[in-house]
Amino acid sequence: MSRVHCPRCQRPQSHCLCPLIPRLASRTRVLILQHPDEVRHALNTARLAALGLCNAELRIGEHFPELEAELAGRQVWLLFPGAAALHVEALAGQACGEERVLIVPDGTWRKARRLLHCNPWLAALPRLSLAEGLVSRYRLRKAPGPGALSTVEALVHCLNALEGQGRFDALLAPFEALIDGQIAAMGEEVFRRNHLRESPET
């Protein structure tokens, strides 16, 4: 018999995260484009981010031809690294007379690049990058390198930089609870043996 899942956060009902998900207003409109392979991922932080932001939308797919016309004439930025990417702190200092639209690809680096490949207009957008050296709080998976953050973490860093430090930290509460729940399910001993990072020598 399959477990009953919450229709909103899609977690098992016994581990529903909805009480921890905030509803935060932002001047920036957030549009998360999720690769289909990520939909049933245990750590679907894109859904958590979309649920926690009033001005956010989650769309699933590989091809988004409708968006090019929908966003024509808008101030649109792609949160994705690149040689010509503008640091988000620099954008925060620029005056903005209209609503900014922030597009965030959701998936592994390979899948995110696939989204850009399938949507040339997306790859051509001006890009934003985050500060170097940011470390993910996802303690159950070794990141491929510094700056490899989950979608919700990347959004928190970006929106905090654009609209005020600390304003969007509450988005991380369900993310932390999700990780704690996975650690509890595997057991502390297994977690320490397989995932706990060693402390650097002093």
Automatic annotation (TrEMBL):
<keyword id="KW-0808">Transferase</keyword>
<dbReference type="GO" id="GO:0008033">
    <property type="term" value="P:tRNA processing"/>
</dbReference>
<comment type="similarity">
    <text>Belongs to the TDD superfamily. DTWD2 family.</text>
</comment>
<dbReference type="InterPro" id="IPR039262">
    <property type="entry name" value="DTWD2/TAPT"/>
</dbReference>
<dbReference type="GO" id="GO:0016432">
    <property type="term" value="F:tRNA-uridine aminocarboxypropyltransferase activity"/>
</dbReference>
<feature type="domain" description="DTW">
    <location>
        <begin position="2"/>
        <end position="187"/>
    </location>
</feature>
<keyword id="KW-0819">tRNA processing</keyword>
<dbReference type="InterPro" id="IPR005636">
    <property type="entry name" value="DTW"/>
</dbReference>
<protein>
    <recommendedName>
        <fullName>tRNA-uridine aminocarboxypropyltransferase</fullName>
        <ecNumber>2.5.1.25</ecNumber>
    </recommendedName>
</protein>
<dbReference type="Pfam" id="PF03942">
    <property type="entry name" value="DTW"/>
</dbReference>
<keyword id="KW-0949">S-adenosyl-L-methionine</keyword>
